[in-house]
Amino acid sequence: MKVIVIGGDAAGMSAASKLKRLVKDCEIVAYEKGNYLSYAACGLPYYVAYHDMKVDSLIQRTKPEFEAAGIHPVLFHEVCRVMPEQKKVMVRNLETGEKFEDTYDKLLIATGAHPVIPSVPGTDLMGVHTLKTIDDAVKLKNGISEGVAKEVLIVGGGYIGVEAAETMAAAGLKVRVIQRRDVLLKNFDPEISSFARQELERLGVTICTSEKLKAIEGDTRVQRVVTDKGAYTADLVLLASGVVPSTEFLKDSGIALGEKGAVAVDREMRTNFPDIYAAGDCAEVYHMIKERNVYIPLATTANKCGRIVGENLSGRHVSFAGTLGSAAVKVGELELARTGLSESEARSLDFDSASVMVKASDLPHYYPGASPVWIKMIYEKGTKRILGAQGAGGTGTVLRINIFAAAVANGMKTGELGMLDLCYAPPFSTVWDAVHIAANAAK
Ligand SMILES: Cc1cc2nc3c(=O)[nH]c(=O)nc-3n(C[C@H](O)[C@H](O)[C@H](O)COP(=O)(O)OP(=O)(O)OC[C@H]3O[C@@H](n4cnc5c(N)ncnc54)[C@H](O)[C@@H]3O)c2cc1C
């Protein structure tokens, strides 16, 4: 069996590695258009911020390591066409420009996503950056360390915009975030996302919400950013207004695309062609509570779905249990995390839902370093099934929301979670943990 993998990062190489462990004698060719395989994109904001952090530390597995495992990665090669009827792909060697065809028995599309570039003038000026690949991060880090950048403007207040704002403010830059919506972190309810705003403002970041980018101006280098509400000087701009699935090259292939242009897949990650799979940021994913496919591009899902594809390519039939959109972000001294449905999602899906918001202490008041933790829990009124939770607070907040993720995934009721036998000792929690307190607050 010959398998072609398109895309050499989380989803693609998880699948390749799993398959190779299961079927030793299969041939696996992984085409990657960039220079790196299997790298931690999630670490990029920290690579940019921390002077001593090196690119190599982000690489999980190198080309020689994959080769030693019997996988054949081919760098600087872009797949520009898929021909499902002939079981062929068209590949372009990006170093020579040469094009050739390659054939497969089974194919995995794992091309990820790329940043949205706003359609305004000036996005091609020097000093305008995105943060998606290692190359992006190197350029951004150089842009900062050259000392030219003093005033940074970040377009977009999602996870990447917020993480970048936090890390750049910590690096001593003057940072402004402009955000089209009226809140940061749209996947959180406003009661929780407002903590991110407060913390960023405490760190000296200026937040401009309900403000739309109109133009980026400068001669060769960015000097000014114009919005619908004003104009700001800036010598570095980071475009962080979301990502879209990298699926343009599939347009005429007959492979069905779904939400936001992501490849439509079933729970075994199969496309509408029997021997073609898709996983990661280029594909839709099943949502456990919504009980339908959604587009939520996250490393957690890319790794799990990639691994499932690896198993299924070997002949198994493993189904993905589903995402809960569980995600976390660090903002200064705060941890923020979410899982399952937000209150606004629960309402829009017509759940008969209610919510509670509690403020608790992470440690007993007598124990040094105790700090507040806020938890919002969303549940179904009649059944008391927990639908989602979000939290903001100090160390341990993300782990508390992980408990909710387990509760939501297992259909737990508020009363069950309120009495769950969690660990307790004063250095770690209160005897009734914030999780218990939130669950028991449900009426
Ligand atoms: C700054 C940043 C921070 C993040 N933080 C988090 C986090 O904290 N938690 C979290 O869960 N997720 C996070 N993510 C998201 C996470 O990185 C992605 O979900 C994950 O990398 C998706 O993996 P993937 O393999 O699907 O796609 P990608 O990582 O995008 O990899 C796809 C690969 O395919 C290659 N490719 C594309 N098209 C072609 C083609 N036609 N031919 C050949 N090769 C091609 C690309 O060059 C790329 O290497 C973050 C992302 C970024 C950018």
Structural class: alpha/beta
Largest sheet: 5 strands, parallel
The count of DSSP E runs of length 2 or more, i.e. the number of strands, is: 25
Shape: globular
- Largest beta sheet: strand ordering: 3-2-1-7-18
Distance between the termini: 57 Å
What is the arithmetic mean of pLDDT?
Answer: 97
Strand residues, percent:
25-35%
What hetero molecules are bound to the protein chains?
A: flavin-adenine dinucleotide
Q: Radius of gyration over alpha carbons?
A: 23 Å
Number of distinct helices: 11
Low-confidence blocks of residues: none
Helical coverage, percent range: 10-25%
Summarize the model shown.
The chain has helices at about 10-20, 45-50, 65-70, 135-145, 160-170, 190-200, 300-315, 345-350, 395-410, 415-420, 435-440; strands spanning about 1-5, 25-30, 70-75, 75-85, 90-95, 100-105, 105-110, 115, 130, 150-155, 175-180, 205-210, 215, 225, 230-235, 235-240, 245, 275-280, 285, 290-295, 325-330, 335-340, 355-360, 370-380, 385-395. By secondary structure, the protein is α/β, with parallel strands linked by helices.
